[in-house]
Design a protein that fits this description.
- The complex is a heterodimer of chains A (110) and B (119).
- With 110 residues, chain A is mainly β.
- Chain A has one domain: Immunoglobulin-like (Sandwich).
- In chain A, 0% of the residues lie in helices and 44% in strands.
- Chain A is built from no helices and nine strands.
- In chain A, the strands form two sheets. In chain A, strands 1, 3, 4, 7, 8 and 9 form a six-stranded mixed β-sheet that branches.
- Chain B has 119 residues and is mainly β.
- In chain B, the strands form two sheets. In chain B, strands 2, 4, 5, 6, 9, 10 and 11 form a seven-stranded mixed β-sheet that branches.
- The chains are: A mainly beta (110), B mainly beta (119).
- At the A-B interface, strand 3, strand 4, strand 7 and strand 8 of A face strand 5 and strand 10 of B.
Amino acid sequence: QSALTQPASVSGSPGQSITISCTGTSSDVGGYNYVSWYQQHPGKAPKLMIYEVSNRPSGVSNRFSGSKSGNTASLTISGLQAEDEADYYCSSYTSSSTRVFGTGTKVTVL
Amino acid sequence: QVQLVESGGGVVQPGRSLRLSCAASGFTFSSCGMHWVRQAPGKGLEWVAVISYDGSDRYYADSVKGRFTISRDNSKNTLYLRMNSLRAEDTAVYYCAKDLSPHHGMDVWGQGTTVTVSS
C-alpha cells in the first residue's frame, strides 16, 4: 500500500491555471475510475473537491476539474484565487478494496 | 445538518489500548460506508480503515491490520475504532469520514480527535 505520488508543491499567480498530478499503479489509479481529490487548509478537516475522477460535489466551484490517463490522475484549478492556497490530496480505491492517499501537494498562490 | 463528531482521543502509553467514537447526525447513517483516516503531526493523510453500511465488510491499512478494529452501531448512529498495541507512530489526528454512497469519495468529515502515544 504505497502512497500515490504527488508533487510536493505547485505554485501559480492569481488567475492562472495549475495542475496537480497523482501517479499510482494499475492496481489503484489505473484500474478504477475511483480517484477523489481533497483540499485541506491548515488546522482544518479535508474537503472533498472531486470524486470518481471528474465529478464535482454540490457546492464545489467549477474552477476545479479532474481527469485521468492511465495510472496518472490530475486536478486542475483554473482562475487561481488566494483562497485556493491549501494542501491537496488525491485518493484511490485499490484492488484490495482498501483506499490509498497521495503524498500531498502544497499549492501556493503567488 | 450533516455532522460527524469524533471523541475518545487522548494521551496513552505505548502498548495500551484506546477506543475512538464518531457520532453521526443529519443523514441516514445505516446506509453509508464509513472510514477512519489519520494525519500524523506535519504529515499527510493516511487511510486507516473502512466499514460497509451494515458492518459486514471491513478493510484495513497494512500499518494497522491486526491491531485496530473498525465497527459500528447503526442503532446509535455511531462509528468506532478500537486501537490495541498502540505505538508511537500511531500518534495522529484521527478523522472519521462518510462515504459518498453509492459513489466513491469521502464527502463529510469530522473535526478530528488527537491521539498521542507516549510514555
